[in-house]
Amino acid sequence: MSKSIPEIQIPESKDKIMRQIKALEMMIKEDTNDHDRHIHETALNDLQQAVLDERMTEEKQRLLVDMDGTLAVFTPVDELETLYQPGYFLNLRPIDNVVQSIKEIIKNNPNIEVNILSAYLTDSPYALEEKNLWLDQYLPEVDIEHRIFSPCGADKKDYLPGGIKETDFLLDDYTHNLKLWQPPARGIKLLNGINYTRGTWEHDRVRYDKDPKELAENILSIMRGREQIYDDRPNALAPNKYFDPSWNMHSLVDDDEIEAECENAP
Asked: Rounded to two decimals, what is the model's pTM?
């Protein structure tokens, strides 16, 4: 006959929580049967999660969000010069449900500081201005003080104000950026329908074609340590109510090809 595990009551005082954690750690060392050990380990995990949740409310976490391929459709070009033409970045189509999920996070989670972290062509007379105008149009909730732009090909974490922290999260579609980010911080790969063809990112990943509230909750769950999410790659050509995939029917490319336009820019 199996015994139920009693529900633990989390003390309101952080000092009491820490005392209970120490007591449980000692009890686990002295446990002589599996049932008692399981009860104590479950209680210990609950208390440790309570401490983590409290820390997250005391100090804002930062969510850094990429633009091209994450918030906006990255449109491959036949000639590099196209990236330097006026209107290229300004006219990129938004991935609407991803944009809406970020708005959802900003609106309902004051303990999370959302920043844009996007690479740009430093020798383009239009790229930086157009990226800001695009954000003014589609995501004005992120003000100019929370928009960070790094040169194409640079390590994004080198441009974070105050340096990178373990609690910083990057939402990006490009595996190379994520590998530079994690460690020391954490990366979340956005599966946008054309990337993740090689399956080289083994950590958290979320599909772009979810309901905005579900996508927002996925991102929050990862940031709060509640769960790890390993979504499968969506079908790039399958229609869905959030985005028409016809923009890329002619060009199913992998991560390296998507970013090559930017990295090879002079």
From this structure: 0.72
